[in-house]
Amino acid sequence: MATVAGASGSLLGFVIATLAILIALPDTASMRSLRRYRGWRVLQLSLLAAALNLLALLTFALYAQVSDGDIQTAVIIGYAIGSLVSVGLCGALFGLVLANIVRDAARSD
């Protein structure tokens, strides 16, 4: 369980840093064009959901280190799968937002 706790803590830090960077980007013309996509808001909400899921996984993994039981293991496996799916989904959403920007830039040229 220590490995799960370490991995989920690292991923949680990565997701929080990504979300903080995306929110704190300056208000420039390119950022306004990026923020007008519907996928941008979905990406931010997906990152928030991934962060909450990873926080729950980290909490359960740390709790499972001090207690024994099959229920904790089953819960951790469920949260681990959900966390991996949510982080992968966030990466795919970010790729789609960037692909839309490139497509729109090619149309306008």
Protein architecture, described:
- With 109 residues, the chain is an all-alpha fold.
- The chain has helices spanning 2-24, 29-35, 38-66, 70-108.
- α1 (2-24) runs antiparallel to α3 and α3 runs antiparallel to α4 (70-108).
- It is elongated and about 60 Å long.
- It starts with a helix and ends with a helix.
Stretches with pLDDT under 50, minimum 5 residues? none
Strand content: under 5%
Assembly state of the chains shown: single chain
Number of helices: 4
**What distance separates the N and C termini?**
53 Å
How do the helices and strands follow one another from N- to C-terminus?
HHHH
Radius of gyration using CA atoms only: 17 Å
Helix content: over 70%
C-alpha geometry: elongated
How many strands, what sense, and barrel or not for the largest sheet? none
Overall mean pLDDT: 86
* Structural classification: mainly alpha
The total count of strands amounts to 0
